[in-house]
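Note to self: keep these together.
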Amino acid sequence: MNDKQRTQQIVQGAGEQLLALSRRIHSHPELGFEEERAAAWVSEALDRGGFAVESGVCGLPTAFRARAGNGPLNIAICAEYDALPGIGHACGHNVIAAAAVGAGIALAQVADSLGITVTVLGTPAEEVGDAGGKVLLLERGGFAGVHAAMMVHPMPIDELEPNVIASTMFDVRYAGKAAHAAAFPFEGINAADALTVAQVAIGLLRQHMRSSERVHGIITKGGDAPNIVPEATAARYLVRAPKLGDLQPLLSRVLRCFEAGALATGSTLTVSGGEKPYAEVVHDTTLSGMFRRNAEALGRRFPASGDPGTGMPFSTDMGNVSLAIPSIHPSLGIDSFPAVNHQAAFAAHCISPAAGRAIIDGAVAMAWTAIDAATEPQTRTRLLTPSR
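Structure:
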């Protein structure tokens, strides 16, 4: 039995445990940096699979590092497990975590013969949009010594190199002055009006944005009562552009829209966050090619670029990892259409039989890709002598 056959057998033998882990995380959604149960459950599964697990690494209580093998080539599998407010695991991070465990425990059994170290990194808070778990882990040495990183993500369809763009999230707050809205409105400074002016300005700005750019947000505080002139309002916004280099010019234009709201109303603007943006994903084409061959051997089919459903932009802190370390971030379909990510209906699909298949296929394809990277001489040499 060769290494690929062995790792597939290990993943399939652990299939029920992996699906149970996925369902358990799914039924107990936790927000970013609060994933205490999910991080513990994933860590426990890896411990049982022969990993040495360090919890709370890099000053992040819900991050972990699990290692097996002692080879010079260090390949990391990233596990995400945070959920979204209100709609739970509507981005399928339960699938990501279970697939990472499956790939990890399979590779642990062949690591020494391949001359690799397998690192499964628990990366919290991907959904927070600014200073996410991978960004902080990178800054604090969590990826030190890693030569390549990979993960899989559930989506409606398979996509080998999805369009992952740069983004930044920030909060705005306006401070005005309260007053009786009927008797003494002239004594007030309306912070809600400031936010309205800003939103109108952003709407007009969209006419002059590139089609690849995005601005969207929510009002997190709009006032306290209709008979009180609002003295405090707040919003949270995301700005996205194809690359980090495109992001700052767009962000500057958007922030001027918020400044216009303050100027028009006489309120005071405070902006916080947005200091640790998510980068675009730069897919390592060699590793992507290996993943394609392995996933297609399992029955996956990746549509051509430009086919219906492909190329839809999203953002993740895996982009920051990809700028530092050769990385891949393929999507695996879970047959969810018309439900798409960040819908409650998609969350329901993330514990479907198709999602279960994505866990098994993702785990096997990642394990096989790691095997290929370790045994193909040119790729192994390149990863061990990085130019980045």
